[in-house]
Design a protein that fits this description.
The complex is a heterodimer of chains A (805) and B (226).
Chain A: H1 2-17, H2 19-48, E1 59-66, E2 69-71, H3 75-84, E3 88-101, E4 107-114, H4 118-122, E5 126-129, E6 144-148, H5 149-156, E7 166-169, E8 172-180, E9 193-196, H6 201-205, E10 213-218, H7 224-241, H8 243-246, E11 249-255, H9 256-261, H10 265-296, H11 298-306, H12 311-347, H13 362-388, H14 392-401, H15 406-442, E12 452-458, H16 467-483, E13 487-493, E14 505-509, E15 523-529, H17 533-537, E16 541-544, E17 558-562, H18 563-569, E18 579-582, E19 589-595, E20 610-614, H19 620-625, E21 629-636, H20 640-653, E22 661-664, H21 665-672, H22 674-708, H23 710-718, H24 723-752, H25 768-794
Parallel strand pairs in A: 4-9, 6-8, 15-20, 17-19
Antiparallel strand pairs in A: 1-2, 1-10, 1-11, 3-4, 3-7, 3-10, 5-8, 6-9, 7-8, 12-21, 12-22, 13-21, 14-15, 14-18, 16-19, 17-20, 18-19
Chain B: E1 8-19, E2 22-34, E3 39-43, H1 50-57, E4 64-70, E5 73-74, H2 80-90, E6 91-94, H3 106-115, H4 121-134, H5 150-162, E7 168-172, H6 180-195, E8 199-203, H7 207-210, E9 215-220, E10 223-224
Parallel strand pairs in B: 3-8, 3-9, 6-7, 7-8
Antiparallel strand pairs in B: 1-2, 1-4, 4-5, 9-10
Classes of the chains: A alpha+beta (805), B alpha/beta (226).
């Protein structure tokens, strides 16, 4: 213990005495450890922190599986699962949007329809009031509502007197009976409030509508395997009960943590990998700095050894110093992370779950401490071993001659080769993501995004009970919008590109045999549109005709399909005039036109089959399933006056309608690529840091090498070498190290970039252009980094060779 | 070569370094002629300016004043960078510490001065082979300096200095780190080279070594004190 304290005291003294070394090394480590701490704190919050439910490992989502795709659960299946399962408590949720009135401005809110046992299954308690009771579950039993804590605090001022008050959802009054804690938003759907899931008769008969999320909790003493086997056997039995809807459908239990985390895991883990590599480079740099110091301290170690110090004692002393240095870096890193984590959370895509859970807590502190200690050992060990295994005779002789250090130079060179290799992996990744992003932004969305402004509204069922009422409202709205100044055309559509995805329907095509496997059933995304939609959006008609005034509710049901649908379902045939029947109770549709594809699901996503039909012919099911929501689109010069005009147009028709989103199509496209952009920027940022650190590493190694080789270089000059010869020697060595690093790095990048495949678009992970461009960039940077030491070397005084001591 | 005048003629050479507000003189008013084929020894205590004079003669130092004529070349009238080719052409160096490059083999050490004189690879290999043979080091050509004794290392040092057949060999304490037997061997080699026509200027503290030369010049505090 005493000797450890002695080591610590000596280490502190050493670090204070070599201030510039300490500052440079600590700053390098601050950068590496800070980036790791920031990303880890996000990973801890989003991925690792236990879900806010009791026994979260026992909580799962029960899903249907069709082929390899997960799907929701139908109402009749849920009822049967709940009745038959002996191993699971099952609860269901159906999230939808509704118009909330009765509090200040009308507002569009997300409502969760939940079974009475939903909150008890999750294991969450109300903050005030109560949850639903079983007798409130049947249809029409009770219009009661439970608020989310955020909604209660933000919209109702967090008053406890709200219990018993009434709020109106889609013109139906509901009595507030409770307020749930923030944990209740278990599935991350962002619900503002919940009402009892009163399954309607039509829902209980709808065997194809997979609209329920089913939460499952293992009953006490039941294992996951047993529950899973039971659920699968129930699902197998239900195939016989409802063969048409359940053929080829299996059931599966998915851990709730996986559901909550969603797609966030992969990019976060990739970012974690990237900052890990940055830390490795930082370690290599500090190790190099230590090697430089070790050469200056070679004599000291030799004397210590000559005086009886063992190698382990010397290693321990040197490691104490490096771990202490890493801990200083950790303090800096924590400060950097405290600042950077906030920025990161703000910058992450809005859909990233559990960002409110991200903070620097004890676990993050422990992680930083662990990383710092490990880092200290990693960068300190090699130099320590090198220093602690001295050949006293040689060290003393070399120290006297001011030369030597060949082994240290080699170790330094190996470290810098590793740095270049790792930096290349990061830079190639960043380069691929950059090219990918450029490729995505070059994709033609297939419509006139520059001039389209959109606004979404939904009509409450009470006042717009029939399809005709909804149609009349939307036709009037289109007419009002068209009167606004600057508006060239306007239209409405149930889903617009980059807006809501809508829902898909299975279709039966006349004249084609039914597919053998369920997952091969043709499906299509239906969009109800008003006349003039294609013109407003700038979508080209490729064949047939657009909708005409004669396409009425009472006339033949007609549809226009996109090119993808035409190619996929009518390959090599003319789709015009063909008929198919969607699963929407609206009857068969005759195809009268084919329009060009639009990148409706994102610039990087291939178009999927889409069906357009006139709003006049939209079946009742469509209005029901979409909550009578439509998007008004106008082709006009955008800007605030236009947006205000559009709001006024809606209000002039119905003052109680909330307008919950209004956007320009270019904004929407930009928002759709924002996560990709952010991921690219973060990786590019870390890669730039890596490049800088690698450049500093090359500079350090070359400068050290020049200082160590002064005698050799002066001999060479004395023997006839000129300035260029000496510079060539130094730069040539830098090029050799870079070349080796690039070769190793290319092999590493080849393997590592496979992990990026999912994030790439329009560029392969092995894209030669990216590799060559990055290699050229790195050569240029390392040449630049070696130029200064090379110039210094070229100025070496040959007289040094003549000095005897 | 011009045999009419001296091989080296220096006149009133001064060399100083800035020191505080003034200057520290290492060489003062040095005038000296060395005839072709002469073997001159420079002696004097440490700090007398011996090595500085040697560096100046070998064109390694350009910061001096005075006149320096090497054969028909007025060195003092040349720009420093134009003096380098003269050094490359006429001068070979032998150092006290041998100054072999640790990471190069004996053969590679010998080839180094040739590579700086743009000698073709084939010719270079032939010259290295000749020199190895001449100095009896063929068996050691692939060894590294650390695998040789001090005497052997200095033998390589001398071989390296003369491989490009310089007319002037400058030796700075060539036997300073050697046993007397090894030192004697090197001095005999110098005698042979001198007999073959190489002009030699050596710096030494050894009276015995000085006897190998035709003439001794004593330096003290930068002055010639003969």
């Amino acid at each position: 213990m005493d000797s450890l304290l002695q080591d610590l005291r000596y280490a502190i003294r050493q670090l204070i005495r070599n201030r510039s070394f300490t500052i440079v090394a600590a700053l390098t480590l601050t950068l590496g450890i800070g980036a790791n701490t920031a990303i880890f704190s996000v990973i801890r919050g989003v991925l690792l922190r236990p879900l806010p439910f009791p026994e979260p490992d026992n909580l799962m989502l029960a899903v249907g599986v069709i082929g390899s795709q997960r799907a929701g659960v139908t109402a009749p299946d849920f009822v049967d699962w709940r009745a038959q399962s002996r191993t699971l408590d099952l609860a269901a949720l159906d999230a939808y949007n509704a118009n909330l009135t009765g509090i200040d401005e009308p507002e569009r809110v997300t409502v969760g329809r939940v079974t009475a046992n939903y909150f008890t299954t999750l294991g969450v308690q109300p903050v005030i009031g109560r949850v639903f009771t079983a007798d409130e579950e049947p249809e029409g039993a009770a219009n009661v509502v439970v608020l989310s804590e955020a909604f209660w605090r933000n919209r109702l001022g967090g008053e406890s007197a709200v219990l018993g008050r009434t709020v109106t959802l889609d013109d139906v009054p509901y009595t507030i009976v409770g307020v749930m804690g923030s944990a209740a938003d278990g599935l991350n759907n962002g619900e503002n409030l919940w009402v009892p899931l009163a399954l309607r008769r039509d829902e209980l008969r709808a065997t194809g509508a997979r609209f329920l999320d089913v939460v499952a909790r293992l009953r006490p003493g039941i294992t996951h395997t047993r529950a899973s086997a039971e659920l699968q056997s129930i699902a197998a039995r239900l195939i016989e009960v409802r063969p048409q809807s359940n053929k080829d459908v299996k059931a599966e239990l998915v851990p709730m943590s996986e559901i909550v985390v969603g797609d966030s895991r992969r990019p976060l883990m990739l970012l974690f990998g990237a900052v890990g590599l940055v830390l490795l480079i930082a370690c290599a740099n500090v190790a190099n700095l230590l090697l430089v110091r070790a050469s200056a301290r070679g004599r000291e170690s030799a004397i210590r050894t000559a005086l009886g110090a063992g190698a382990s004692r010397l290693v321990r002393q040197l490691l104490t110093e490096s771990v202490l240095l890493a801990l200083i870096g950790a303090i800096g890193g924590l400060l950097l992370a405290a600042w950077g984590t906030g920025l990161l959370v703000q910058a992450l895509p809005a859909g990233t779950p559990r960002l409110d859970q991200v903070r620097l807590d004890g676990i993050v502190l422990a992680f930083t401490l662990f990383v710092a200690t490990l880092t200290g050992i990693v960068f300190g060990l090699a130099p320590a071993l090198r220093t602690a295994r001295p050949d006293p005779v040689r060290e003393l002789a070399e120290a006297a001659r001011g030369s030597g250090g060949v082994h240290k130079r080699r170790l330094g060179a190996a470290l810098v080769v590793a740095e270049i290799a790792v930096a290349l992996v990061l830079l190639v990744s960043a380069g691929l993501l950059l090219r990918s992003f450029a490729a995505v932004t070059r994709v033609d969305p297939g419509f006139d995004a520059e001039r389209v402004t959109a606004l979404r509204i939904a009509l409450p069922s009470r006042r717009y009970a029939t399809p005709a009422q909804s149609v009349l409202f939307y036709q009037s709205l289109v007419a009002r919008a068209r009167e606004l100044s600057g508006v060239r055309t306007s239209a409405v559509a149930s889903s617009v590109p980059f807006g809501s995805v809508g829902y898909s329907l299975a279709i039966v095509i006349e004249g084609q045999p039914a597919p053998a496997r369920r997952e091969d059933t043709p499906t299509i995304f239906p969009r109800a549109i008003s006349a003039g939609y294609f013109g407003t959006m700038g979508i080209r008609l490729l064949a047939g005709r657009e909708f005409e005034p004669g396409d009425r509710a009472s006339s033949v049901r007609v549809g226009i399909i996109n090119q993808t649908a035409a190619r996929r379902y009518f390959p090599g045939e003319d789709a015009l005039g063909r008929r198919f029947t969607p699963d929407d109770n609206g009857g068969p549709i005759q195809i009268v036109g084919v329009v060009a594809d639009v990148r409706a699901f994102g610039l990087a996503s291939d178009p999927r089959p889409e069906l357009f039909y006139p709003i006049e012919q939209a079946p009742a099911t469509h209005w029901e399933w979409t909550g009578r929501a439509m998007t008004l689109v106008v082709n006009a010069k955008g800007g605030l006056p236009l947006q205000a005009g559009l709001r006024d147009a809606v209000r002039s028709l119905d003052r109680s309608l909330p307008i919950y989103s209004i956007w320009s199509a270019t904004d929407l496209i930009a928002r759709s690529v924002a996560p990709r952009r952010l991921f690219m920027l973060l990786i590019a940022g870390f890669a730039t840091v890596a490049l800088l650190l690698a450049a500093i590493g090359v500079y350090g190694v070359m400068a050290f090498s020049v200082s160590q080789r002064t005698r050799e270089l002066s001999i060479r000059v004395a023997l006839g070498a000129v300035r260029q010869d000496v510079m060539r020697l130094v730069v040539g060595r830098a090029i050799a190290l870079t070349g080796l690093g690039l070769a190793l790095g290319a092999a590493g990048a080849f393997a590592a970039t496979r992990l990026l495949t999912q994030s790439l678009y329009g560029v392969r992970p092995t894209d030669p252009l990216t590799y060559v461009a990055i290699a050229v960039l790195m050569c240029a940077v390392t040449l630049l980094a070696s130029y200064v030491p090379a110039r210094r070397a070229a100025r070496v005084d040959p007289m040094v060779a003549l000095k005897n001591e | 070569m011009n045999s009419a005048g001296p091989f080296i003629s220096i006149h009133n050479i001064e060399r100083s370094f800035a020191e505080g507000n003034g200057r520290h003189y290492v060489l003062r008013g040095i005038s000296l002629d060395v005839a072709q084929g002469e073997f001159v020894t420079i002696m004097g205590p440490s700090g007398a300016g011996k090595s500085t004079l040697l560096a100046l003669l070998g064109m390694l130092d350009a910061e001096w004043t005075g006149e320096y004529r090497l054969l028909e070349h007025d060195v003092h009238k040349l720009k420093p960078k134009d003096r380098v080719p003269l050094g490359k052409k006429y001068v070979g160096f032998v150092f006290q510490q041998y100054h072999l490059i640790d990471d190069l083999t004996v053969a590679e050490n010998l080839a180094m001065p040739l590579s700086y004189r743009d000698v073709k690879a084939s010719e270079r290999d032939a010259l290295v082979a000749d020199t190895l043979d001449r100095f009896g080091m063929v068996a050691k050509k692939n060894l590294y300096p650390r695998q040789l004794s001090g005497g052997q290392q200095q033998l390589v040092g001398v071989a390296r200095a003369v491989i490009h057949r310089p007319a002037l060999l400058l030796a700075d304490e060539p036997t300073g780190n050697l046993h007397s037997d090894q030192g004697k061997e090197i001095m005999e080699l110098f005698r042979e080279l001198n007999a073959a026509g190489t002009t030699i200027v050596q710096v030494t503290h050894s009276e015995d070594n000085a006897k190998y030369g035709n003439r001794i010049i004593h330096l003290r505090d930068g002055w010639i004190v003969n």
